[in-house]
Write a structure and sequence with these properties.
This protein is about 40% helix and about 20% strand. The protein is α/β, with parallel strands linked by helices. Strand 8, helix 7 and strand 9 form a beta-alpha-beta unit. The protein binds adenosine-5'-diphosphate and magnesium ion. Magnesium ion binds next to helix 1.
Amino acid sequence: MSHGIFIAGTDTNVGKTRVTLALLRALQIRGIKATGMKPVATGTRPITAPELPIFAGFCRIGDLINDDVASIAALSPPDCERLDVNPYCFDWGVSPHIAAAQAGVRIAPERVAAAYERLAGRCDALVVEGTGGWFAPIGECGTMADIAQRLALPVVLTVGLRLGCLNHALLSAQAIGVSNLQLAGWIGSVLAPDMPALEENLAALDALLGVPRLALLPYSVSTDNDASHLRSAAAKLFDAPLARAQAASTHLSV
Ligand SMILES: Nc1ncnc2c1ncn2[C@@H]1O[C@H](COP(=O)(O)OP(=O)(O)O)[C@@H](O)[C@H]1O
Ligand SMILES: [Mg+2]
């Protein structure tokens, strides 16, 4: 039995990937078999030769890869299939609904759910990174919210700390509530070294969002300490559900 969470964001470029990777590392440091998943990615580049050993069995020379998927795959167990870690990938780095239309593909939440179930069969913990903001369109009438709803996981909102983030955070939290999903908490990522009134913004988010602040990633060009900032968030998000899953499977096997 496994447990997963969905990493949403107040926008694109707000720190969702930083948070996803840091959580994965924090879980793995604690000995938990964890994988990341990026259901929909847009924008690719050719894989580089030095990256190939990391993706042995996962990618071949000449393959195109998305940056987020490359980072997530590098941290995911080798027995997780690339198409499960990333069921939909489009070369054009635009909104998923535009990239999918150009490629003649329909993004189906059911296919994402099937990939999730296969990964869940191989791992104890799954961290699923959304694309863009909560209502980023994936098709003529669907948005990323439909994928999150189909997966039915608790949601963690990544708030990119910059001017405008209070409005974006409150709108996102309200939209997640309308989707009837549990907002398990929020994580702040400080996007600039000199954000004015950082403490006041954090205090406003604490007061207005009404769910726990699980972590704060301070501004840092290096990602070396990211996992240590997410250690306690990983424990809060995964320990109790994994213990319950373990107890349920022990109960079933006796
Ligand atoms: N805490 C932080 N400190 C410094 N740079 C950050 C921080 N969080 C995010 N960034 C930078 O912001 C950019 C967008 O982050 P990313 O995690 O890729 O966002 P998203 O996945 O939401 O698009 C990246 O260049 C990333 O390194
Ligand atoms: Mg990302």
